[in-house]
Amino acid sequence: MSKQDITQQLIQTIDELSDLNALQGIFHEHRDGDPLPSAVELEEIIMLSRSILFPGFFGRSSVNCETIKYQIGVNIERLQKLLYRQIMAGLCFDTDCHCPHAENTRRCLNVEAEKIVVRVIAKFPKLRTILSTDIQAAFDGDPAAANIGEVISCYPALKAVINYRLAHELALENVPLIPRMITEMAHSETGIDIHPAATIGSHFTIDHGTGVVIGATCIIGNHVKLYQGVTLGAKSFPLDKDGKPIKGIARHPILKDYVVVYANATILGRITIGKGCVIGANVWVTRDMRPQSKKYKQSKTDILDTDFEYGDGI
Amino acid sequence: MSKQDITQQLIQTIDELSDLNALQGIFHEHRDGDPLPSAVELEEIIMLSRSILFPGFFGRSSVNCETIKYQIGVNIERLQKLLYRQIMAGLCFDTDCHCPHAENTRRCLNVEAEKIVVRVIAKFPKLRTILSTDIQAAFDGDPAAANIGEVISCYPALKAVINYRLAHELALENVPLIPRMITEMAHSETGIDIHPAATIGSHFTIDHGTGVVIGATCIIGNHVKLYQGVTLGAKSFPLDKDGKPIKGIARHPILKDYVVVYANATILGRITIGKGCVIGANVWVTRDMRPQSKKYKQSKTDILDTDFEYGDGI
Amino acid sequence: MSKQDITQQLIQTIDELSDLNALQGIFHEHRDGDPLPSAVELEEIIMLSRSILFPGFFGRSSVNCETIKYQIGVNIERLQKLLYRQIMAGLCFDTDCHCPHAENTRRCLNVEAEKIVVRVIAKFPKLRTILSTDIQAAFDGDPAAANIGEVISCYPALKAVINYRLAHELALENVPLIPRMITEMAHSETGIDIHPAATIGSHFTIDHGTGVVIGATCIIGNHVKLYQGVTLGAKSFPLDKDGKPIKGIARHPILKDYVVVYANATILGRITIGKGCVIGANVWVTRDMRPQSKKYKQSKTDILDTDFEYGDGI
Amino acid sequence: MSKQDITQQLIQTIDELSDLNALQGIFHEHRDGDPLPSAVELEEIIMLSRSILFPGFFGRSSVNCETIKYQIGVNIERLQKLLYRQIMAGLCFDTDCHCPHAENTRRCLNVEAEKIVVRVIAKFPKLRTILSTDIQAAFDGDPAAANIGEVISCYPALKAVINYRLAHELALENVPLIPRMITEMAHSETGIDIHPAATIGSHFTIDHGTGVVIGATCIIGNHVKLYQGVTLGAKSFPLDKDGKPIKGIARHPILKDYVVVYANATILGRITIGKGCVIGANVWVTRDMRPQSKKYKQSKTDILDTDFEYGDGI
Amino acid sequence: MSKQDITQQLIQTIDELSDLNALQGIFHEHRDGDPLPSAVELEEIIMLSRSILFPGFFGRSSVNCETIKYQIGVNIERLQKLLYRQIMAGLCFDTDCHCPHAENTRRCLNVEAEKIVVRVIAKFPKLRTILSTDIQAAFDGDPAAANIGEVISCYPALKAVINYRLAHELALENVPLIPRMITEMAHSETGIDIHPAATIGSHFTIDHGTGVVIGATCIIGNHVKLYQGVTLGAKSFPLDKDGKPIKGIARHPILKDYVVVYANATILGRITIGKGCVIGANVWVTRDMRPQSKKYKQSKTDILDTDFEYGDGI
Amino acid sequence: MSKQDITQQLIQTIDELSDLNALQGIFHEHRDGDPLPSAVELEEIIMLSRSILFPGFFGRSSVNCETIKYQIGVNIERLQKLLYRQIMAGLCFDTDCHCPHAENTRRCLNVEAEKIVVRVIAKFPKLRTILSTDIQAAFDGDPAAANIGEVISCYPALKAVINYRLAHELALENVPLIPRMITEMAHSETGIDIHPAATIGSHFTIDHGTGVVIGATCIIGNHVKLYQGVTLGAKSFPLDKDGKPIKGIARHPILKDYVVVYANATILGRITIGKGCVIGANVWVTRDMRPQSKKYKQSKTDILDTDFEYGDGI
User: Fold this and answer.
1) An example of a Gene Ontology BP annotation on this entry (chains A, B, C, D, E, F) (predicted)?
2) Residues of chain B with C-beta less than 8 angstroms from the C-beta of D71
């Protein structure tokens, strides 16, 4: 194979790969100047958020009482800038940028993005308050935790929950794409996959966490504890007349306050697990559980459920 | 402990650690000038491949219809250079570089590496075609997916499958080490562990994915869907007369078209799961299943299998 | 929303977030000049350790027999410096740095940190010896492993075990925080969560590994093999009079030599699994097993255990 | 000095430094979202321009005949993006961004910046043509130059002249600030200070170059050669009624074709040095010189010039 | 030359280069833990200082009136940390760290360094005030300057003078080495070499600047203007009985207020140039000049000076 | 100007710039796999050389007596690798890589490059010895130098001379291009331009240095001292029949031992400045000077030289 043959072959491959027909539907064209969804910027957003929420534990520099305000001020300013760009990127992602009114649309999106940023940042004090309950719950429930600082520094679940709680605020503002990218970053880092649309109360803990899946329409109360490998998924989902899944239907479990679910258990469908229930390791549940009940063994009713058809996990 | 004592202790440790006898078998000596397997270069290879296959979704810069060819051209050139180096690194890794004919051997490897690179790059248009079916299947099967773009941008399974499909081409060319490094990088990123030697058809999806294991001799048809935590492993493997496992024997399952396997199910051994079968969460299967059959509950025959002996998962 | 309104809102949020009352207990103030626990430095420590232990497989540069001593010498020096800083960071993390005797305390910590570093580095030759048995066991037990080099380069379990064995030495020296940070870094990279306080013998292997959890008081013998998703957890843990878990009680399993545990099995409580036992996939065990026994199916006694109460996984 | 005293002192200094009165006139406030003049981006612009103009000599990657188009295509696209941002930064720098019409102004600037970018890039082929004459002249005039490649790779004057010729195009488009920043970057790199507003013909060379100064209203013909330390400056400049220098008056020399000026010579004022003149080292000239004349020694008339008053060098 | 020969030769060279005898006097051994003089940290110190003094012109991020305090606060904190380390590095550089009292000495240095940092930072408001006069003078004296912003952004002399004024404060505090490193960084960037011990008044400007040299014992008044290539050097310096130059003797010129010195002029020795004097390009001066006098031509007395012996330039 | 027009214009410019005819002679095509001359790698070569020669003064890490050998060993190994690549790049730069025998040629170059590297590195101990004399001379001649360490850390001339002495060794080995790139890097950093082919003895110093030019055929004895702005250039150079300068003719001055040349003096042509001569600031010399003579004033004979014709400065 001569040098010429190699070059010929490569040029032909480049031509095939650049053929716009072959790219139909899987090629994302951007309007010039629009910001791009950026994993690098989202990582900085996460780092900034963590260091604003728990100064001294995350972030590169030391802090002290007198000067902490400067640090938080600068971090909030940087966060505002980056969040604005990524929210714009999300809004543009969902919008036809080549229509005749693109310029006007874009201006509207600008204004909207600006407002969303301010509203989301204004929620940071509340985020810190609820995350503090998650930290306390993790410490109280783990004899291996030496102190609160170890929980904040080391526990992967906290990282996943910080990302989720931030992404959830963005999801509530209907920002497309970006919330999911943020929770997937935590998924990659920790093995914990929480859909940004899920609803989760205070004092929430996940121990170890690898393999946990929490679906989009889950509703989780306060003081709930999950172990590694737990799935809160869908049992089945209705299809439309084209055989495509219908979007937006409630299909994941409701867990009331003080529920505990042990390792690798699987809970499927829009069922309600009552207050204080305990579900053992490796069992699965497809029917409602009364408050304060326990299930350590696989029940026949769950398995033999006549209308049973597994659905999508989230 | 004086400064002198500390230095003495460190120098002695350095001597022990540099002792060539202690390094017997676990020290990789390189011939000068041979490229090294490099995680950094492999990561760039993955980034380039993703941005060539799905321009606008991966990669740092924006693209538009008119100028996409320049981007792909430059990326293919860079990919060629890096792939060549890593393929050479893989080939050298397996070759005794200190034999008398090392210089000749090396020249042969050079020529071979050059050819492999061109053949693998020439397959990129086909890789994009089959990956598009994987994307479509993920979108069609998930009510939580807002649009195709979200699937490409966020779904970890797609990242794992891109790595697998690229690594598989390198494995078909008998490149040592590098394919496994590429799939392990996806394993670390997504928790999905697909052996590069496995065979996987079109429209393949994995939901959530953390904990999935697909063994080296698996054969998976078209339109197959797996959920998180599914193992397609070996039940047992024969040993040679030295008690070492015999390499290269088919020992993992065959999944026909349209099979669905739910979360944390375990399928073991060279069995065949017929077309359209459904396997429920947390069950395990060690016997063939007829087409269109379903298994939601643990069967006794699977458990009480007389010749049963668990083997290696891959 | 005018520019002024936005700025006003941000400044108010900054004030709320900087309020020291709101930070009570979740803010880590550092004494000036004390080193900080640093993920970046710990990553370099891990990279250095890997390249000192297995030169030519990890680290950026090539090595050859004649000059390996220079590489190891320089790497040990750098390791000494970084380890010293991180050990100091760990010791300071646990110490009240604002008491009147802070200056004296700090000097003591300095001296202690210096000694710990030298002792830990002096153990590197032994670490390499035991890790070599882990590598050999992985190769002997996996028909998919082409050679020893592939095991060292690619297998995630080895990375997790290197981190664990290093962190364990630091834990034996009572360094706070840092050992856990090191094992959590492996957890994020590989999905394998080994507590640094656990005790693990030679020839230890984990196949695939995603989802494995090994608790703090586990004692694992030689030649033990685990598969992905295995939990060695606590069944229950006693609470003190305030309802908080009592720290430091033995609560995780003992696995004797030659035990094998298949995928997603769960072993809970301070029980003893005898020499040569085999535990099947997806089952769980809460009672002692006699040597050489096998358990492929869920037993009633394990499930119906009267004093049963799940506890913390680690 | 206690910790508290130190903190007190620092906080007070921060307050003083943030006092807006103290910042009057020397503080540059930006409108949110406007691009900033950026030394980092300008350096990338310079690197891109050099590698577009002389591919294979500048830039990180190798090029070959068949694929050069991809490289240039990608570089032009990146250049367009960066130039647009820096031109906008320059235009905004000169504009009152807080007036009521800021939004409209900004939109006009956008449109203008877009046009300027395209016009400047369209001149790159001509820039390459004239720079090629500069290179040829340097090679022809230097016995120490081994080949054309050495001139392109090593000669600092070429770098200074590339920057100047690019900056000059931007100056012709009335872009504020940015042209001067570009020539000052060459000044720092090479010690050659050419004002972007100067006019310079083809086949222009500067040998060694450190200390050369070429003022804003200079007009230099073709085939001119300067040596290190040459100043083409102003002799005097008229002041307005407030005693401030009047801007925009022609005050620097005109050098006709084929003029040579040796090391450290100083030529001052709006005088004309005729075609083919030679000026010796260390002399200075403040009067016109007839074509083909030479001046190796300081003349009295130049020194005793009655209306003599040195002015600004540029 | 075989591989073995090459390795042998390299090892021998390493041995020669590591021979401590050969390193006598030119090898700088550090006490463990002492900070090192660091060009990288000094560059960050310069960048921080510039962006604290002229926010919005230097530094990476945009600023606005409301939030400037956060930026300056964070920058001052970072500056404090870095300056402390570099001042310690300078103090240690001059101190015998291997004497028996090293530990005590080091503690004293620590306390001293801390105080110096606070005192130097406390002078930043005054530094900004005097630098503002330098900027105003540059703008008033240059018809090519479009506005104040261009002077701050582009003029190399301002960068050199910022470095000098900061270094001068450190020199007044008797910090060894570091002040000179800071002015040499400006020398490399701008070609302007100002000794940190020199004394320079307000409204000081240097046009173009390349090649300017200002010696250690110079005293320069207010409103002085220099052009490129000006030397303010020593004419001769007395030697001690060993033939070494005696340190610390006043040997450089005094320039009174409103002096102007044109390009490449050379002023040598402890002479006084009176108020309002003008010195022409390329002349040199070794005798006092009366106030308001001008010298455009070389005078005999300067050249034929009987006790003339050139000395060191600084 | 519509989006389409802009894209059209850019594509046309790309076509023009990629036209191979337009690139004739100014485009450097590389053979695949050949190393490229790289400013980045050369900078690392300079940093390594400086830190090998003067450990503790240059380079990032601290050193101590016991472990210095590891540092130097690792640095020499890295230097060997980088120097090999850059020497190859230089050799390939000068060679027609597209002739039929390119493969053989390349192998010869490989062997040659390998030998040159070893020979050059073997000279490092001698380089350190002679550079030590340069350092001593700078210290002895400058009352402003506090100690030897300040000279090594701060003096720009030392940096220029290190680069020159290294480049000179490469020039003696006939490596093309690379030596000149190395001295030009010092030229940019310090303003001192020394041609790598010049010959310079021991105890060589340059004070301040900006603007110094030392031509290719200069021969400089021991104990010579230059000040800033000194030119040792060519007076004229003979042309061949095509009017091009003849290469390789001795055309620059010879300075015998103990010569001192003050600021901005210019010495031109193949003349000999005798032992112990002193040349004053701003004068120029085009005729031989007898030993021990002094010249502080411009002489007529130098100016009125009948055969006078200025030539190239280097």
Assistant:
1) amino acid biosynthetic process
2) 73-74, 77
